[in-house]
TrEMBL record:
The keyword Cell membrane does not apply. NCBIfam families: sbcd (TIGR00619). The keyword Hydrolase applies. This is Nuclease SbcCD subunit D. Heterodimer of SbcC and SbcD. SbcCD cleaves DNA hairpin structures. These structures can inhibit DNA replication and are intermediates in certain DNA recombination reactions. The complex acts as a 3'->5' double strand exonuclease that can open hairpins. It also has a 5' single-strand endonuclease activity. GO terms for molecular function: 3'-5' exonuclease activity; endonuclease activity. GO terms for biological process: DNA recombination; DNA replication. Keywords: DNA recombination, DNA replication, Endonuclease, Exonuclease, Hydrolase, Nuclease. Residues 277-365 form the Nuclease SbcCD subunit D C-terminal domain. Belongs to the SbcD family. PANTHER family: COMPONENT OF ATP-DEPENDENT DSDNA EXONUCLEASE, NUCLEASE SBCCD SUBUNIT D.
Length: 397
């Protein structure tokens, strides 16, 4: 398959991934922000005269996405097709490859190329500019245990199956005209990449990370999976997710890569910022400091993760924090206390203590202060009720 694309001198590629359509941020529905990103993507492709869009997996957040997410994806496909910009997409570890790939043959005719079948790794989408062909190879997420037979590898590991897929890429490339440039889309954890808390673990099937050298021999590798935009090397890059999905991404700059691929495979890369629905902030301290520190005023409109360091858990902390930071989404408690003696085992600390004392100790550990008289009475009544039930069950036998 060959399509014409490209301006004089370069072929311009817009690299994105990890849309996670349908995913929420804590309890915040992100569908409107995801729709805004899709609009931004289409506008960027039009205004920057992009010749190809590549989407490197995790289009959806789960295998069976909600209807609203499917409708947004359908809208994205129609808008990209209407622009006449060829688009290559692969499935990621969050996607159902079979569901995402439904109708791929028909959609191809509109210039939207879904690559979800591992067997097609060596069959590229071929675009052309004034300097010749550019072959785009889509390597969907390869779960080692599921694809080892397809690739004839003995050990089901990520490096083994990706290596076998790349052998097919290189074999196909070797049969193409001299000077054919190449782009590989892959969804993987490449050694040297910086992870966040919001990526799903892919260590099942062996060690998750694969060396960047597995992709040697191609001009550009458009990676998906890690949510931070980063360059493993000049030719191997993650676009990152366009939106944040955990507070561990608070320092991320959410972007897409705009790449110019030259006649000899040279790369010029530019980061295109994505719309920010609301900044993220991680704040830490005792509650009085968080409520009064003037330096924290800049976070009052942010989505906030607050960690309280009060030795004793304060009353109603979430409501109090929300008075100043109305978009507080996460509250943690990490009290500043002297550490307990590590040489005293849990069993030793419990020795000789009755249920009531153990429960009171637990309250003290969690809250930082022991129960008051009313709370001790509640605990005592609860234990008495349990003991009464035990006696009644024994009598009924």
């Amino acid at each position: 398959m060959s399509e014409h694309a490209g301006r004089s001198g370069v072929l311009r590629i817009l690299h994105t991934s990890d849309w996670h359509l349908g995913r929420a941020f804590h309890r915040v529905n992100m569908l409107d922000a995801q729709a805004e990103f899709i609009g931004h993507l289409v506008a960027t492709a039009r205004e920057r005269e992009v010749d190809a869009v590549v989407v490197s997996g995790d289009v959806y957040d789960r295998a069976v996405p909600p209807l609203a997410a499917v409708e947004l994806f359908d809208d994205a496909l129609h808008r990209l097709a209407d622009l006449g910009v060829p688009t290559v997409m692969i499935s990621g570890n969050h996607d159902s490859a079979r569901r995402l790939g439904v109708g791929a043959g028909l959609i191809d005719r509109a210039g939207i190329h879904l690559r979800t079948d591992p067997a097609g790794c060596g069959q590229p989408v071929v675009l052309a500019d004034t300097h010749g062909d550019v072959a785009f190879y889509g390597l969907p997420y390869l779960e080692p245990a599921l694809v080892k037979d397809e690739f004839g590898v003995r050990r089901a590991g990520h490096e083994a199956v990706l290596g076998a897929a790349m052998e097919r890429v290189r074999a196909d490339l070797a049969d193409r005209p001299t000077g054919t440039r190449s782009v590989v889309l892959a969804h993987a954890f490449v050694t040297g990449g910086e992870a966040s808390d919001s990526e799903r673990d892919i260590t099942i099937g062996g060690v998750a990370a694969v060396p960047a050298g597995v992709f040697d021999g191609v001009d550009y590798v458009a990676l998906g999976h890690l949510h931070g935009s980063q360059a493993i090397s000049e030719r191997v890059r993650y676009s990152g997710s366009p939106l944040p999905y955990s507070f561990s991404e608070s320092a991320h700059r959410k972007t897409m890569w705009l790449l110019d691929l030259g006649a000899a495979g040279e790369i010029e890369a530019e980061r295109i910022d994505c719309p920010v629905p609301r900044p993220l902030a991680r704040i830490r301290g005792d509650i009085e400091t968080l409520l009064t520190d003037p330096d924290l005023a800049r976070h009052e409109d942010a989505w906030v993760e607050a960690t309280l360091t009060d030795p004793v858990r304060p009353d109603d902390p979430m409501a109090r924090l929300c008075e100043r930071f109305p978009h507080t989404l996460s509250l943690a408690f990490d009290p500043d206390r002297a550490p307990e003696d590590p040489d005293v085992s849990y069993a030793q600390r419990l020795k000789g203590r009755d249920d009531q004392q153990i429960a009171e100790d637990f309250v003290t550990h969690v809250r930082g202060a022991g129960p008051d008289a009313r709370e001790r009475d509640v605990l005592r009544d609860a234990f008495d009720a349990v003991r009464t039930d035990d006696v009644l069950r024994e009598v009924a036998r």
